[in-house]
Amino acid sequence: MSNPKTVRRPTDQERQTLEAMTREAVGRVAMRAQMILLSARGYSAPTIAEIQDIAKVTVYKWIDRFDEQGPEGLYDQDREGRPRKLGPDAEAELERVLEGPPTEEGYDASRWTAPRLARHLERKLGTEVHPDTVRRALQRLEYSWKRPRRVLPKPPGWKERLEQIERRIEEAGSETTVLFEDETELRRFPPLRRAWMPVGEQRPVPVPDQNGKFFLYGALDVGSGQVIAEAHPKGKTCYMEAFLETVLAEISGPILLIWDRASWHVSGAIQDLIEAHGRLEVMLLPSRTPEANPVEDLWRLLKNRVAANLEQSLDALEAACERFFEQLTPEEALQKAGLTAS
């Protein structure tokens, strides 16, 4: 079997240029530079496509362009044919203003629409275009019209806390097992995900008459890729104690346990258990930083594979989760959690 295609090895100068582009270039060019850096680290094109939420063919295109032309090849090039109604200056202006809300440009509006962008280009550059022309330009610039996501502000000192955790992981000796732990809720109401279906048809997903749920407790060994998972009725201190006893029974030697600040993680009973065993060292992740816990990626993968668009009994759902972790190899666990290249 042939090795997956990756970019040629960048020179030191090219690598410095690429890193600068990720910080300073316009959005799509910065993303292309990041794609090349990921490829240079050994990430496969399918993995990069999944990370960036783009098509694999797009990744291959920019790998080939970099191989031939270096960092300069990642910038947009002039195309033959009829001149565009919106030139480079207008496109640059679109990308600039889309980085912030219309209020920063003096408009009493909360979001940019194609008509509003068209009016802005006329006011700013004297370029008169139809909103449809703006829409085509945005598609060409790899923008899409979609719902944003809400984010909570990070707590003070969160970066310093993560750096402290990273240093402690690096300091841990080979005899110490480093575990990230987390819980997730599984419900009978299935999470809805996109799927192939005939044009004009939106296939229904049955909703159960009665909802139900259980919690999965999971721990990932960042060294070996071992995953310990256990189902319990809810998130509660007594079930957290039971799961920790399972972890301690399966893993010998010192354990560096990293988890969030859930109430059942910081309860007095859990602190007593930690002190009683003596080989557990616990570090708390900063609040509102789920992306720092690699187990979150495993939960996302689990729900997409066994729960999305499928109504089933709680017993069947729990059995499907158990099979998922039985079949998940340590290598796949580390790769899907973003801890190794594919």
Would you summarize the structure shown here?
The protein is of the alpha/beta class.
- Mean pLDDT across every amino acid position: 90
| Contiguous helical run count | 13
Low-confidence stretches: none
What's the helix-strand series? HHHHHHHHEEEHEHEHHH
Q: Structural class, judged by helices and strands?
A: alpha/beta
Number of strands: 5
Strand numbers in spatial order across the main sheet: 3-2-1-4-5
For the report, how would you describe the main beta sheet? 5 strands, mixed
Gyration radius, rounded:
24 Å
Distance between the termini: 15 Å
Content of β-strand: 5-15%
User: Percentage of helical residues?
Assistant: 40-55%
State the shape. Answer: globular
Structural features, described:
44% of the residues lie in helices and 11% in strands. A 5-stranded mixed beta sheet has the order 3-2-1-4-5, with helices on both faces. The chain is built from 13 helices and 5 strands. With 342 residues, the chain is of the alpha/beta class. Helix 1 runs antiparallel to helix 2, helix 2 (27-40) crosses helix 4 (56-69) and helix 3 (45-52) crosses helix 4 (56-69). Helix 10 links the parallel strand 4 and strand 5.
